[in-house]
Design goal:
With about 475 residues, the protein is α+β, with helices and mostly antiparallel strands. About 30% of the residues lie in helices and about 25% in strands. It contains 14 helices and 21 strands. Strand 13 and strand 14 form a beta hairpin.
Length: about 475
Amino acid sequence: MSERSLYYQSSTPQYRQRSGITSKRRPSKCGNTGLRISTGAFVTIQGLWRPAPFGKEQSHELQAQHVTIIGPADSEKYPIQKKFQTAEFLRSIPHLRLRLPLHALLARLRSESEFLLAQYFRDRSFLRVQSPVITSSDCEGAGEVFSLGTRASVSENHGEGALEEASFFRKPKYLTVSSQLHLEAYLQEHPKVWTFSPTFRAERSDTPRHVSEFWMLEVEIRAQKLQEIMDLVEDMIKSLVQGLQQSSFTDELVTMKRSGEHSQTEELLDDESIPTRWARLKEGSWPRITYAQALRMLQDSASLGKTKFVHALSWESGLQVEHERYIVAMVGQGKPVFVTDYPRAMKPFYMLPSATEENDGAAIPRTAACFDLLFPEVCEVVGGSLREHRLKELLASMQTPESGLERISSSARTEGDLSSMPIDGGGNMDWYLDLRRFGSVPHGGFGLGFDRLLCYLTGLRNIKDVVPWPRFQGRCEC
């Protein structure tokens, strides 16, 4: 038996685990103090820490003797009341939902995951670098970028092109959609680099898998085979899961489910599902199939009546979410699945071709040396590829309509005249071509959607409930 002091904020009944000891806290009156602890108040409680009576869920309990209210709160006005709150409502007050037990657990899970990933790369001699958030180009070439401008440029200018004319940087700049191009610059000197930073996409998709600001872990290494990159991805995620298991997060997630504390957000999975899926991630190797093999499997399943798809299947149309989920279910059997060698035309300009086809005597890239890693339910979590490290071939890829870059003038289409390179929405890409013009090396890399991975690990079905400060179309609170 010992005397202890606890600081905590009174919100909803909650469970916390520390060093294997669980304590249950409930706001209430305390002894003869005459104090009433209201929802939202911050208090200190001093008393005796004793083993809980037999049959209680927690191992210990605090027998309060002295209570002091440090930060009072008006329980009548406090937005989070002791009743069911919809996930949509909680997303409108992200500064307060951080106090809830589930979001407190998610914050600690995120912190521990970041530490374990940093430790993983440090132990393998990777160099962590910092990449810019403001960039000159759209790395993916899809046009889903946020343009930057000063307040003056918005208020003093009107009409199309006004933002560009008053631009702080003289030319349009954007919030980054990927750090990959800048990581490649580091790679010329350092053989293995990585970064972890926010990423921005001006997507109008209002789905459980999309937000406008999220965190990406991106890696570039010197490599000649796609298998090297996929091996790294698989080993990294398995190492992360192993570390999290040793930190008891699976037990806390299950305890959260059983206690009913999850009810103020999207429903968590069954108690057994989270430990099972974490264990399955570490079992054996993850399946790997090509895009062509996946397409044939989907078409055969549809023609035999085994399943029905809403979206048509073709080489050019790509894989939709329903196709990806079917692939993971049939091929992965609960494990993630690598799908490789997508059609070259649907991938960004920087990817190295993996196969070509003849067209009027010319070799045309047919597939890219790339992969998507598909997880159950959340689908794509990681995307990677080998990069086109040859100057002439990269220049040719940038000239195609699929690249999303402006057309290169005819005077700049030969290796002998590369001083005036293409412009991507006003941002000069000449610096990126310098990385090939002045010596390069075969290399590749990947980007991991950190928040989507956490969605899978926690069993939460909506990424807006995993991202602490969700930004999406029409909403950017705080």
